[in-house]
Design brief:
By secondary structure, the chain is an alpha/beta fold. The protein folds into two domains: about 240 residues, Metallo-beta-lactamase, Chain A (4-Layer Sandwich); about 140 residues, Flavodoxin domain (Rossmann fold, 3-Layer(aba) Sandwich). The protein is about 35% helix and about 25% strand. The protein is built from twelve helices and 23 strands. The longest helix has 16 residues. The radius of gyration is 24 Å and the shape is elongated. The structure holds MU-OXO-diiron. MU-OXO-diiron (FEO) binds next to helix 2.
Length: about 400
Amino acid sequence: MSFKMTDKVTWVGKIDWELRRFHGDEYSTDRGSSYNSYLIRDEKTVLIDTVWLPFAEEYVEKLKEEIDLKEIDYIIVQHSEIDHSGALPLLLKEIPDTPIYCTPNGKKILQSTFHEDWNFVEVKTGDTLNIGESTLTFVEARMLHWPDSMMTYMDSEAILFSNDAFGQHYASDLMYNDLVDQCELFEEAIKYYANILTPFSALVTNKIKEVLSLELPLNMIATSHGIIWRDNPAQIVHKYLEWADAYQENQITIVYDTMWNATKRMAEAISDGIKSVDDTVTVKLYNAAHTDKNDIITQLFKSKGFLFGSSTVNKGIMNATGGLLEMLQGLGFKNKKAAAFGSYGWSGESVKILEEKLKGAKLDLVEGGPLVLWNPDKDGIKECFDFGVKFAEQFK
Ligand code: FEO
């Protein structure tokens, strides 16, 4: 499949309907994904990004149906991660001298990944490449989300090729934001932001302000994953500004892992306590062992506060909560209150450990979460309810 986006620009990527795990097992892709590659035909011909390694052969064969590869004058590698650069070795076997435009970091990473001495041309923010009626302008986007990331602006079509930024892991042959289900689209866009881009939020804000200050016309944002934004493309830019600014909704999320449901009962009693204070707040409960970790992270990102609960096991906490807390350390969520609770049989370390980990993630800790022996009795349930009240009152 390929399709024309404008007279000059053709999508030549790959929709990956089967993908269910990305970045190893770090990211769930329940709706698949796509690797978007773009062919620009002006007086010169330019290829922007390629596809993931397993699709390299198929990609090069289909590209040959679209164009004689020898007609490609330049390749732009906006990001060297192999979901976009994976087809380069095969492609460059056919056109070995084609210049590859990338950032200095991109060159380093490509060389360390593929160990090939290709014809690299290093570019930085503001550098341009005239290809006839169009000029391509490069904008480095360091750490969004790798040190090499960059975007490319095409003036004649007013398209920003944004690479990973503004993308979503979302397979759809409709390919444009105005054609797909809006709930699915924004669910995938916020999941992508929460799980991949949150650590770089300050950079996101600065980069967007820098690009907006140029007041460039914008017909499309052509991402490297998922659909292309063509209907009011600025809407996703403004969403990113919101998400990057210590985002929260009126939601409290309770995450727990439980052996014999004592911690689960505690979670439910805490939820009742929260609701007794504020019946407008959305409270969501997740058993960490039974729920996709990236979906939980997305819910935590949307929350103004969250609680973690775990049984004590072997003087520690259960592994599903442990894994999520490890993710939270790196993500650096801002503007969130957090608390812990748990149950135990004899040693009872879970609450202390959870609190330490929440503090380590630089969350605003509400201390003194309940720790209940074995199964909560009436008093234990009341203690949890009361802690839910205390937690909810922090937001008044
Ligand atoms: Fe889609 Fe960072 O690669």
